[in-house]
Design a protein that fits this description.
63% helix; 17 helices; alpha/beta; 7 strands
């Protein structure tokens, strides 16, 4: 692979990841070796965007093992071959011949011997389940063979990487990458190959489990999401808290252990959560109303600022709606239909690919129309640059409008049903207290500190939202400026008849000649002045 092609692929991966996701947070980046042979083993929740995220995080070329049918897709197959990907035959693929995998795995082992970085998804398929499936033997065989060929002197590092997406498939969501503790396989040289492969498999599974969302019982996944939501709502009303994705990870690991060690505690937490949900649903009091009850002044201030921001930003929202709504809906529709065939985990990748097609086609048409109307390349360039910005603004505007609506609905219970709000808040606090006890007793190392992050340290001083204040001030100044024109009559130009009507035709010619001579003299004087100024 050439360096130029590697750079092009890395830039394309970076653009795809940061265009679809709002942020990429990496925990333990220092555990990723910058040089030397590395085997990255990772869970597989989001189809072909997972390799793109690994490329962005690794900051070095990575050769991947990819299922063979993707190599038969015209453009995608060319890209995969260009980055040095290796086709892997899976038994459940049509026309698969797993005997070909021997050569493919040998190729990856040879790349590791040359100091390359290779990526493997040991579960063997992509899925959205909140758990780690059985680890297959492919990456273990690659690691054992590569290290054995160097008699244990290769220094291969196997690095577990966990990918978490929140929300799982939503556009402009968040990506959390957790890098686990690297381990070597040199200590297994000289042992029976079958035993060594089995041992490395167990090490890979043990290394991945702490860095991925793993909930052994499927019915616990919904409980984890509900409790994490309540915990974030409670924490956001007070001090800073760890990200919601961290709450899901810590609570999922704790409940996974607690379901075996103390199932009664899990059932009690489930009962408390059901009680809160029933009370909240019956009374119509949601988290926004409970938040108003704890910090009413700040909540009302944010409500008013958001309302003013929505009014001031409405013209930009309309501009983004006109330039982005049609391709956005076409992308969502076509990606949804394609996902029925490829699976739900492929939705983000399909949206990226189809979005590039639909947005490119629609924006190209708009740019052509603007250029035909303005006949100016500068105007067209400014319009093209503004389309993406106004589209993202419209998306953020819509989400803010939803939050504004919830705050508006929350005002009624806060003002007229404070006792009911207090009961819902007590039920939520009981859920959080029970979950905190489970995390402290059964959570992973450091999990209790992350879970209780909002209780430790002094209250966080709220920063002044200068951007929002500036936008409101600019909107107010613009309204005041425009209001100044109301009731102001513009003076009309005097209606004076042209003097040329009274000039005889015989005198008109000499007058025009004199004016032409005077104008030529003025131009000569201006040219002389310009020359003197340049000198």
């Amino acid at each position: 692979m050439s360096r130029i092609w590697d750079r092009v692929v890395h830039v394309a991966a970076w653009c795809a990841v940061h265009a679809y996701y709002r942020s990429v947070r990496v925990e333990g980046r220092e555990r990723l070796p910058a040089t030397g042979p590395v085997l990255l083993v990772c869970n597989h929740p989001n189809s072909l965007l997972d390799p793109a995220v690994l490329l962005v995080v690794a900051r070095r070329p990575v050769r991947f093992a990819v299922k063979a049918p993707l190599f038969r897709v015209p453009v995608l197959g060319m890209i995969l071959r260009g980055i040095g990907a290796v086709p892997i035959e899976r038994p459940d693929d049509a026309g698969a011949d797993v005997r070909r995998n021997v050569g493919a795995l040998a190729g990856l082992a040879a790349a590791l011997r040359n100091g390359a970085a290779c990526g493997f998804f040991p579960e063997g398929f992509t899925h959205t389940d909140p758990r780690l499936h059985a680890v297959r033997s492919g990456p273990a065989r690659i690691a054992v063979d590569a290290e054995a060929s160097a008699n244990g002197a290769l220094g291969l590092r196997v690095v577990p990487v966990g990918l978490s997406f929140h929300p799982q498939q939503a556009f402009r969501g968040e990506v959390v990458v957790r890098v686990g503790e690297p381990f070597g396989v040199a200590d297994l040289c000289g042992t029976n190959r079958h035993v060594a492969v089995r041992t490395v498999q167990e090490r890979i599974a043990a290394g991945l489990r702490p860095v991925v969302h793993h909930v052994g019982r499927a019915e616990l996944a919904a409980l984890v999401e509900r409790v994490a939501t309540l915990h974030v709502e409670r924490a956001s009303a007070g001090r800073l808290t760890a990200p919601r994705e961290t709450d899901v990870h810590v609570l999922g690991a704790a409940l996974d252990v607690c379901s075996v060690a103390d199932p009664v505690a899990v059932d009690a937490l489930d009962a408390l959560t059901d009680r809160h949900d029933r009370l909240s649903g019956r009374t119509g009091v949601e988290g926004a109303a409970v938040g108003l009850s704890t910090r009413p002044a700040r909540a009302l201030t944010l409500f008013l600022c958001t309302a003013l921001g929505l009014v001031a930003g409405f013209p930009l929202f309309l501009a983004g709606l006109l330039t982005g709504y049609v391709p956005y809906r076409l992308t969502a529709s076509t990606a949804g239909r394609a996902a029925r065939r490829e699976g739900a985990a492929a939705v983000p990748f399909l949206r990226v690919v189809l979005g590039a097609w639909w947005f490119g086609l629609y924006w190209g048409l708009l740019a052509w129309l603007v250029f035909a109307w303005s006949e100016s390349a500068g105007v067209t360039a400014v319009f093209v640059a503004s389309m993406a910005a106004t589209g993202l603004f419209a998306l953020g505007y819509a989400s803010r409008a939803v939050r504004w609506e919830k705050r508006l609905e929350a005002l009624a219970p806060f003002a007229f049903r404070r006792r009911v709000v207090a009961r819902v808040a007590e039920a939520r606090d009981a859920v959080v207290a029970a979950a905190t006890e489970i995390v402290e007793r059964h959570g992973p190392d450091g999990g209790a500190a992350a879970w209780r992050a909002e209780r430790e340290g002094p209250p966080v001083r709220q920063r002044v939202p200068w951007l929002r204040v500036g936008a409101i001030a600019a909107a107010g100044a613009s309204a005041w400026f425009l209001a100044g024109f109301r009731g102001t009559a513009m003076e009309e130009m005097p209606d004076v008849a042209s003097p040329w009507a009274a000039v005889p035709p015989a005198a008109a010619g000499p007058m025009l000649e004199r004016d032409a001579v005077s104008l030529a003299a003025c131009l000569d004087a201006l040219e002389s002045l310009d020359t003197r100024m340049r000198a």
